[in-house]
Amino acid sequence: MNCHIYLRNGIVYVPTIGKMDKGFYRGVEPVAVVSASNIEAVRQSLQAALARGNPIVPVLRRREWPPPVLLKYAGLKYWSEFERDLLFWTIKKKDTAWQIASQKRQPDRMWKDDPERTITFPAGTTTDDVIERMIEIIQQSADH
Q: Which of 13, 95, 112, 132 has the most C-beta neighbours closer than 10 Å?
């Protein structure tokens, strides 16, 4: 399970994360776009994305990739515009362990887990508990 959550200018974007061959992922429809201040809408968006999981999507050659799906929802043309003022997290589940990882932009322009801001939950943690913690993180981040 791999779920991406983006916060930009007070708006939370939660795309469906499709899985391509060999564990590569890309954002696809549907995409939830809600105000960070609307806690119930954020909760429902996260619940829906986690319930959808990672549907299998076609493997595309790099030159065949469409523009990132989020650009349409943000009303932007370029990913570099979207990345400005962006906070980005992943929720992952491996076996029975959930993890929320803040993403940190690297010099090579890629995003990677920030080990200093990663939460690994104990086995048996419920999906609802992970969602509630993610909502807390979004609320704290949106206030700054």
A: 13
Residue with tokens 């809408």: 41
The pTM of the whole model exceeds 0.85? yes
**pLDDT, mean of residues 40-44:** 98
Q: Total structural domains in the chain?
A: 1
The distance from CA 51 to its chain's CA centroid, rounded to whole angstroms, is: 14
Percentage above 90 pLDDT, the chain:
86
The CATH number covering residue 77 comes to 3.40.1590.10
What are phi and psi for residue 6, nearest 5 degrees? -120, 140
